[in-house]
Design a protein that fits this description.
Helix content is 61%, strand content 7%. The chain has helices spanning 7-31, 36-48, 68-78, 80-99, 111-133, 142-147, 149-157, 160-179, 191-206, 218-221, 227-231, 237-260, 270-286, 296-304, 311-326, 336-350, 353-362, 364-379, 382-401, 429-437, 457-471; strands at 61-62, 293-294, 404-409, 416-424, 445-455, 479-481, 489-491. A 5-stranded mixed β-sheet has the order 3-4-5-6-7, with helices on one face. α12 (237-260) packs across α13 (270-286).
Length: 494
Amino acid sequence: MTKFPYLRQDFTASLVVFLVALPLCVGVAVASGVPAELGLVTGIVGGLVTGFLPGSSLQVSGPAAGLTVLVFEAVDTYGLPALGIIVLAAGLLQLVMGALKLGRWFRAISVSVVEGMLAGIGLVLIAGQLYATAGLKAPASGIDKILGLPGAAVDAAGSTAALTSLALGAATITVMVLWKKLPKKAQAVPGALAAVILAIAANAAFDLPVATVEVKGLLDSIQPPGPDAFGGVGIGIIGTIVAFTLIASAESLFSAAAVDRLHDGPRTQYDKELMAQGAGNTICGVLGALPMTAVIVRSSANVSAGARTKASRVMHGVWLLLFAALLPSTLALIPLPALAGILVHAGWKLIPFAKIVPLWREHRGEAIILVVTAVSIVAVNMFEGVLIGLALSVVKTAWEASHIKLEIIDKGAGPIQAYLSGNATFLRLPKILDSLESLPQDRPVELDLSGLHHLDHACRTALENWAARHSATGTEPVKVTEPDQATAEKVTAG
């Protein structure tokens, strides 16, 4: 025991994480449009491979609800055989990025972009799974999923089977919400697992007309990408690979930062954690399985259950492997509306409702970035939505960095003095020119730029052109004091 001083705590935590991970692995796989067993494969790799590697000691990896929408789109567009190629390439890219020590740079991504990304994913996930709770087929795009909900509700209202399926899904969500209000001893069984068990029992007792998970068998589900899959890959798949890489990496490393706040143990080594995620995704790609990320729900359950070392997450992978090997037929008992209900609940938790109002009050620009990113993901797609959010974040930062002050002193006689201070960039150029062009044309002007910390080329050119125009009417040439030559005056027009 001295060699493994925390074995008891880690063993108990591993069982809790296994019970939390099991329904989520299956639910994410089904929602992604792939065999349920592939979700278990990714969970197993997340435990036995990524869990064993250095990086973050208590963070747990596996298939994540946050990638469900992206995986579904990829499978729908390129087919299931191409999924392995996408995940393999994303894993290799993560390994390269970790080796180049780029992991720490993900912390520079605006938190509002990441939360907006998760909110957008959550909205699309909820909309898509609401169809699944009623046993209906969801439209392809995010915006169509949301706009089609009223029509789906009408269709469901006219079908006994759809209403039964919807009731089972709603009951699953209710159980998960109310489970946290039960005594602590009852909560030893995770709410998602309890909801699934109750759904299985209800289906068996009343022989409900609902669909259940289709079981193919673990070995039959594992289909490594062959030469044919590689031959069918085109240039268009590159964007999908980049999206998988960036989103999986960002979600994992932001999860690591959140998990670090939950415990007092060793801090995350971001570059090593990125390489651990890359190793796991590389193997998942070889096996044709789902991509993995670090998952905050499983990770927080691991910490709360008292885990002290990485042994807990490795053992949770062992329990998933034993379940997949010994009890795979059990999956066929799980009603699909119950899994859809679990993912509706997971999607709801991805949306940061509690943060939006305070963020709007304190940092309105960040709140706008969050909302625009989320809406863009729903309206366009995942990759382009995130790019829009990142671009907006860069523009906001540039705008805030370009603070500039223009002070005009007019004593009524003699030259008008104009003092510019701060950072003169093209973003504030219209404001600067409007003020300067409003000065009287028949008066000489002295423009003092000595208070500027930065003067970009666009501003310099525009100021020179303005000075030339102002002096063209027969007025004395505008005198300019350069920012790097405070005591010297230079005539720029005349």
